[in-house]
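re: ur question from earlier - yeah i can do the single chain one, its not a big deal. heres the input i used so u can compare w yours
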Amino acid sequence: MVLTDRFRDDLRQVQDAGLSSLRTIHGLLLRESRTRYGRRSAGYVWALISPMILLVVMMVVFSAIARPAGAGEAWWCSF
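and the output i got, formated as tokens:
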């Protein structure tokens, strides 16, 4: 019975520490976003859309580069 009580106490301490860390990270993220974007909602939207646009551009570029050559096509000239 003593071991289980100790285990519960240890588990509770770990949970409290984890919750405290999450609250700290949340507070830092809020402070950073408010400092960067202020009260403008467009800044928050841009922070989400900008990486998505970059991802789509990279996908298009690399899919065009990595496309396999068809029959009779080659990107180098051979005689």
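Helices lie at 2-37, 41-65. not sure if urs matches, ping me
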